Amino acid sequence: MDYNIAQIILVFLVTFIAAIDQFSFLESLYQPIVTGMVIGLILGDLKTGLIVGGTYQLMTIGNMPVGGAQPPNAVIGGIMAAILAITLKLEPTVAVATAIPFSLLGQYGVTLIFSLMSPVMTVADNYAHEANTKGIDRINYLAMLGLGTIFGLIVTLFFIGGAAFGQQVVDAIPEWLMDGLGAAGGMMRYVGFAILLKVMMSRDMWGFYFMGFGLATIVMAAPSLSGPALLILAFIGFALAFWDYQIQSKFKTAKVSNDLGGEEDGI
């Protein structure tokens, strides 16, 4: 695929902003479903960008950092999956599996920044004692600049290099290995959901889970409903959640009356 200097700059800026957003802005701009769409717009294939972004989002939905341990980075992985799918014409599941090594580079990049900034925390403590808010701001800006630059350079370099020799590498991959990558990429979305369920699921929620699964099966089986199926299920899910919220709110605000009646009640 041919690319121009404007696309290279935009890919770098998107990665730069998404990297900072993951730890500082927290506006969910870094989520693969968002970055996939934006990369699709930049490279002229919005549909593929959305499909790849959604597929990668399902894979990472249960990933979360625990202490200093960082999961494979969703920013670089999601962006590179969209780039690989669009520039090399890969299937979405194959692109997701192929992007895993890039997500590990992102993981190492985060660990590197955390390690480099760790000694600087002593300086931040001194600024706090001195009530030097500008000094603390400068430290935060420095960390954001470093993380965004590392992520942006990784993605941009592989974007340029991938366009040059990536197709030759893909053509050299045996068909059986390509099929295996596709199967692995397709399986990862279920692994992500399984991790999420393991963390969040409680015994009281299993009924909603099975009900949602049944509704999804019924809606998808009807040809006239399969198109807007996700929107329909979202409305049903919101209605159930809102109903449950109202019931729980009434239980919490209800007051038990201590009035057992007077003598005139005959009790």
Outline the structure in words:
The protein has helices at 5-25, 32-43, 46-60, 74-87, 92-98, 100-117, 120-129, 133-172, 175-200, 206-221, 223-226, 229-253. It is mainly α and 267 residues long. The longest helix is centred in the middle third of the chain and has 40 residues, at 133-172.
Short descriptors:
267 residues, globular, mainly alpha, single chain
Count the E strands. Answer: 0
- The residue ranges in which pLDDT falls below 50 over 5 or more consecutive positions are none
Helix/sheet category: mainly alpha
- Counting DSSP H or I runs of 4 or more residues, the number of helices is 12
Q: Based on Cα principal axes, name the global outline.
A: globular
> Sheet with the most strands?
none
Helical residue percent band? over 70%
> Could you tell me the strand content as a percent range?
under 5%
What number is the mean pLDDT?
A: 79
Distance between termini? Answer: 88 Å
Spell out the helices and strands N to C: HHHHHHHHHHHH
What layout of secondary structure does this protein have?
Layout: H1 5-25, H2 32-43, H3 46-60, H4 74-87, H5 92-98, H6 100-117, H7 120-129, H8 133-172, H9 175-200, H10 206-221, H11 223-226, H12 229-253
Helix pairs in contact: 1-2, 1-8, 2-3, 2-4, 3-4, 3-5, 3-9, 4-5, 4-6, 4-8, 5-9, 6-8, 7-8, 10-12
Summary, kept brief:
The chain has 267 residues and is mainly α.
